[in-house]
Amino acid sequence: MKIFTAFLLWPLAEIALFVLIGGEIGLWATLIWVVLSGVLGVSVLRMSALPMRETMQGLRAPAEGATRGLFMGMAGVLLILPGFLTDAIGLLLLLPPVQALFAQHVLSRLKVYTPPQPGAWPYGEAQPGGSSDIIDAEYTEVPPKDQKPSGWTRID
């Protein structure tokens, strides 16, 4: 419910900021701001792949490269969207201390999954019963005796 409320209030906040700030700085300055923030957003979005490339080359730690690239991509998308609130949040996400704060929060909530070794029980412990043999079998599907076909499956 909180997310739904946020989605309803976000456009209202953007409109209110457009009216307030646009009234202060004027129409042309507002339009120039929207266009320049969009151009900046596109360039930041294009540069968001750079941390991942540096990670692949071994120049950056994997978690750092992934989170930095993620936050740069989010900042780029927010800068492309027209609005003063989205621009402010996008610009904040470009700051390294803010990225580090969010990255610490995100990484603390992640759970690392390591795939099981071939032949191992997939739930992390020894398989109950001990054997991991594959049983080959044949089966025959037996329909229930008192089941009537529905009108949807009847062919006339």
Automatic annotation (TrEMBL):
Transmembrane feature ranges: 25-49, 70-95
Pfam family, one: FxsA
Keywords on record: Membrane, Transmembrane, Transmembrane helix
InterPro entries associated with the record: FxsA (IPR007313)
This protein's record includes keyword Transmembrane: yes
Keyword Transmembrane on entry: yes
Protein name according to UniProt: FxsA family protein
Organism, scientific name: Pseudogemmobacter lacusdianii
